[in-house]
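User: Hey, my collaborator sent me this sequence without any context and asked if I could get a structure. I don't really work with proteins. Can you help?
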Amino acid sequence: MRRLLAALAFICIGSDSIGAAAPDGTATIRVRVVSATPVAGSTIVELVSAASPLRWTLGVRDQNDAAIFHHVPPGSYRLTVRQPGFRETAADVDVRAATMLEFVVDFRRTTQPGGEPLLQLVRTDPVGDVRAFDQSMLGTFPGDDALASVVETAVAPLIVDRMSSGGLWLAESALVGGYGGSWRQTSITLGAIDVTDPVRTGTPLVRAPQEAIASLLVSTTLLPASAGGPGPVLTMVPKSPAGGWHGASEIGVVPQALQDTNTRPGVPSVARLVTHRDWNAQLGAPLGPRAGLFLTVRRIATGRVESDDPTRLRTSVKSLFASSSVDAGSQGRLRLAASVDRTASPYAGRARFRDRSVRESDTFTTAQASWDRWTAGGTAWSVASGVAQGTLSPALDAVRTSGPLDMAGTVERLIDGSVPTLFDVAAGTRRRWTAGADITPALGRVTRRHLLSGGATLAYSTAVARAGPSPPAAEMVNGIPARVWEFAYGGPQTRWTSTDVAAYASDRVLLGDRGRVDAGVRMESTGGSAQGGSSMSWRSAAPRLTGRWLLETRGRVALFGGYARYLHRLPLDDFAYGDPSALSGRVYRWNDVNADRVLQEGERGTLVALVGPCCASSGPNRIDPNLERPHTDEFAGGVDARVGSWSVRVMGVHRHEHHLIGSLNTGVTTSDYVLRYVLDPGEPFRDPVEERLLSVYDREPFSFGRDQYVLTNPPGHEASYHGVDVTVEGRIASRLRTRFEGSAYHSFALGGNRGFRPLENDPGVIGELFENPNAATYARGHAFFDRGYVMKWWASVRAPGDYLLSAVARYQDGQPFGRLSVVPDLNQGAEAIYGYRPGRTRFTFTLTVDAHLEKALTIGRTRVAGILEVFNLLNSDKEVEEHVVTGAAFRSPTAVQPPRAARVGLRISF
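Assistant: No problem. I've predicted the 3D structure and written it out in structure-token form, which is a compact way to encode the shape of the chain:
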């Protein structure tokens, strides 16, 4: 497989991934002269915006040359081509986000009788391997946001950790992963700035309303040199002001009468809506002949219940977004945008509290400015800067008044997850400041077959966490009292910072009219530290090579492929290791003497382990001074074909992640455990019943409290991915638009913690994997975001009578898990140990269909639309969680999909 992909990459030289800047919502337009009549002298090509003063004028020297317009904002334009002695020709052009349009011109002399000159659009391709969801598509997606909901139901290789179903978790960040990588390497940008949380990387410092987003761009493979990180890049293009006054307002509700329940007796839904109300409004207004303003506000409030817990969990989001665009003459543009989001939601670590109604209130703000400039000679350049900030405020004051022990909760390890992850979220502030510039110079065309581009970015990230009260947590393992966990900060606050500097350059080489090669390199310098604690720095280079070759002159079939190396992002919470102000903890045996499963005075037993990234037995933990930066090597290649308005694309992808990071317990090693074996009953459905010996590590009491940790690159901590993606997209006339994606793949990785959830079975999570030998048993397998086979389909139909009907359907193979055997009689307390690798068995597949129906009525300049959205239209009740412990209840469903729910809305626009 690897050799086949490499051959495609270097023999076929594939992909549309041009060596220019990463897709940012702008487009590229190329105009070639292919006239059968000989043409001499310079051809003038002019592109004029229909809604602003923006205007470009370029010259084409001869028929071996082309006029190329870079960084063209989406919108409507007039394209005009003039040649002395020939008839002028023009066309209206609708430019979509992140596309490359190619036109050809066939002139007619002014003296030539009959026949008009031809200006024909011959190709419309995405800029690179980019999925572009424009405003006309986003408006038809059933969902509560323009990010996770679209990715969840329309991008097959990417998996989202939960089903949104109309806004179940609207205030809480979804986790997105794919291609065998961790959700912690996903990058999110809003316009020109990176809004990825520098601590909980993979999640955004924004809760942007869907009404503020003009396009969503999803880049997953063959990323250009301007993009860093191995994970998917999710770019939200902010909506810009349009000409004239316009506005809209929408209200929606999910009535109780239109909510269903699951049909399985005794098996609850993983979550279901109880209440939902939303309202939003938008206004666009001109600020003079060259400037405009766009504003949108949103308010959403929901209530949900999870599984069989009757507690109603309330969430709310209040958002304000504003953008402005100022045209500085015909060849310059200033863009400004800012947002504020206030959220209230259940506290992420609430499982460690006796009263699980603990909440948090967070505030997210962004501000950015961009300056774009196009010269008469064809050079395009832009500079941008901005900041994203999140302020987290868990409501933990009750701990001070009630006392830590009275607030101490009981955590079921197999349901609530790894106990240390419940202490991760503390009050504090995260901030990321970004600045960058890129240029595609006309002078870069050293010859007629080269196109150079380059740029640089600077990012400065900070995170401050404030120490607060924290009750202990009592841990049970499959109902067996096991341990008591106590954590505390070493100082009043922690402060972590990092600086990232990157420069990139690329060159596109045109191989006639049928092929091209793009070569680029990205150089990065990354470093950071904890205040008064540890530090690290990396300097690395990442090459990129892609290309494309047309198999026939009409451009209907092409081979593509490429190679790329990606450098992993540096999460700020890595600096907690060795930081004297960071978290440290102690783990004790839990002697539940009265068997009430509630921690009480006198039940804390023998000290077992020292935990936490800060400090251990003999002083601070540390970061390995020879810590290597993780990187991912990617080979991809395939074929795409176009017939009329339809396209088919088949691509194979191979990825390998090297030097992943983990926490190694150097104070207590396997020599401090007694290895023994227990009889594992295996699978009850086998005949004869499978039985084998399972290795178990029982910790020697003399090693208790001697733990010491180092953040390093543990041997063998790598991940791999092999897969094939298929995409079919097309239109029927102007009424039907559809897109299908399918993926078949498998990956192998080591999860950071035991379990099947994203904070456990994920290679980017730093946990117990190399700290406890029982966690390493059968640890290598399929990670959380590996679903094996995935199909996602979207279609939209505009019917007579001003009806709009759209639907999204999603099939995902089951979530992988490994059967756990609980060993109760260990010195360190009961533990659950894998009986086989994760992914040897999977939960049942997931199937959902969501629909959007809209009926509009126009009265003068006002448009009124009634909206009905139905989530889980078929009311599927496939299990999303099962009992994974060895025994009679093994594989019994414990939770099923969210049930059917319907939202009714009304929108008024002018």
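In plain terms: The radius of gyration is 29 Å. You can pass these tokens on to your collaborator as they are.
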